[in-house]
Amino acid sequence: MNHYPGQVRLVEVGPRDGLQNEKQAISVADRIALCDALTDAGLPYVEVGSFVSPKWVPQMAGTAEVLAGIRQRPGVTYGVLVPNLQGFEAAVATGAREIAVFAAASETFSQRNINCSIGQSLERFAPVIEAARLRGVQVRGYVSCVLGCPYEGEISPDQVAQVAEALSDLGCYEISLGDTIGRGTPGKVRALWNRLARRLPRSSLAGHFHDTYGQALANVYASLQEGIAVFDSSVAGLGGCPYAKGASGNVATEDVLYLLHGMDIETGVDLARVAEAGNGICAVLGRETGSRVGKAMATRAARRE
Ligand code: HMG
Ligand code: MG
Q1: Looking at the 3D structure of the chain, how many domains does it have?
Q2: Closest residue (by CA) to atom 56 of ligand 1?
Q3: Structural domain containing residue 272
Q4: What is the mean pLDDT of residues 25-43?
Q5: Catalytic pick from 149, 172, 241, 282?
């Protein structure tokens, strides 16, 4: 395959993947402001937070308040992570219409991240996905460690395919493949999509690239060449996973937008407004943006002043 999709859908994971690993607590008000700024910029999907144990990931406590407080824009999908039925009940009680369950292609990562084996996690997700179906709630599925594991090293595409197919069979409408530790390179990424496409339609697959080794944008481009048209990204390149030490943020939304718009691929998203949202959250965190494009835009703006 070597033709690009004409349109790409971005899943903004900054308010969840971006903030879950922060040392400092981010207030509910700041989290709400971030979500609203991102949807004001035209992002069609924002992952608002997680209904996980606050003992495991304290940064995501208060997700119910965030979900209840955001300005719900028509046509925008607001997703939340849910690891089990307890999380599902809490999510729907707050009005969630979209959830994501998260599995891994590595046994050790699964144990560290959600305290159970891959098989047990799939057993746990089955009733969650069934309950969601009965209530008309959409379910997205994640597979972590698809291009390497912080504990086990190499992970084979066959291992990834097994878990992705299982999630799809359980009823996930889309499977997002997570390069949790950002170790993947374009050749491996293309091979992975080709392995997955044996059984799953490419239109049901999404790329979720962390940028630890600086390969994330190249991996997005390689995925476009393979006909993948959904990407997870994080404003200002925020992020990391508490159970993958040293892993850096997701590919920055600003950088992906610059790439896509430069290729005349439609997103419906306003890059300048995303960059503003990035400046806003970076001011809260007291740090520079991790987006190269965000930085370049800020430098240009400062020169013009
Ligand atoms: P556990 O300790 O095995 O759970 O944790 P448990 O069922 O035995 O319950 C123990 C305690 O947790 C109980 O409380 C439960 O009530 C509570 P206690 O009686 O001790 O006071 N509990 C909950 N509380 C709130 N919400 C819940 C919930 N469930 C149980 N849903 C569990 C298992 C899955 C809960 C835990 O391991 C957990 O919360 N893990 C979260 C991991 C996480 O959020 N990781 C980051 C997201 S994944 C990621 O970043 C990767 C991704 O970006 C893709 C990529 O990059 O690869 C998606
Ligand atoms: Mg992630």
Answers
A1: 1
A2: 180
A3: 9-304
A4: 97
A5: 241
